[in-house]
Design brief:
- The protein is mainly α.
- The protein contains four helices and no strands.
- It is elongated, with a radius of gyration of 20 Å.
Length: about 120
């Protein structure tokens, strides 16, 4: 085990099925790494994922686990079951309204990718 996680990891699963040797910095794998970076960027754009924020890097998210009590998670689960299984209302749970967050991220991405008009 390494004391610190590398910025990027890439493994040749044919040669190293147990993922023991990170080849991300190996020039032989540069084109594969470049292709995978492009695919990740494309996927993030499609799903509205801005990637790791500076706030997260600075420790802006809760560091303790679990972030909620078991009862709170059970209540959240019950709300989502009602929504998904019985067409109930969308849960209004802080930090779990995925659809609203995705729409907001899409809007941010569209605004940053669209050409600016006068």
């Amino acid at each position: 085990m390494q004391p610190k996680k590398p910025a990027e990891e890439l493994y040749d699963l044919r040669k190293d099925p147990f993922e023991l040797h990170n080849v991300a910095t190996d020039p032989e794998y540069a084109s594969a790494l470049k292709k995978m970076r492009a695919q990740l960027t494309q996927w993030r754009t499609q799903v509205g994922d801005p990637g790791v924020s500076e706030e997260f890097r600075a420790g802006g998210w809760p560091s303790k686990y679990p972030t909620r009590s078991l009862q709170e998670w059970q209540d959240i689960l019950a709300q989502w079951e009602e929504h998904v299984l019985r067409n109930g209302p969308t849960p209004k749970v802080s930090g779990t309204n995925v659809w609203a967050r995705q729409e907001n991220q899409k809007e941010i991405m569209n605004n940053s990718l669209s050409p600016k008009r006068p």
